[in-house]
Amino acid sequence: MSLILIAAAAALAGCTVTDGDTIRCNGERIRLLGVDAPDDPGNSRCRPVPKPGAICDRQRAAASKASLQRIMAGPLAIERVGTDRYGRTLAIVYAQGRSLSCHQIAGGQVTYVARWDQSARVARECPRAAAGAAR
Q: Is the pTM of this model over 0.70?
């Protein structure tokens, strides 16, 4: 595990939001641990037919992405916990001292997925939010 603090300038210049559960920092794709955001209907999870569990809704996908963009001001702390089958880094990411996964769950922007939460780390960090958003 590695914990990295990205300086404020790097966070603003080097990190972007891909969608409501994924960011990219200096070329590294980082998937927020334990959550699933709605997908744009043009996303590969939604076409040609939606994959099981996919939430294909353009407005909800845009709202989830915007919510994540709003909290990402300032420095980020990234605690890497592994990689997924697509090669993305799985991580708990903190902005303004708050877990981005917990922020997105509490705002109703993502669904908590227990089987994607290694060692129930997100559930421990935001238990009420995770319990209410579980899938």
A: yes
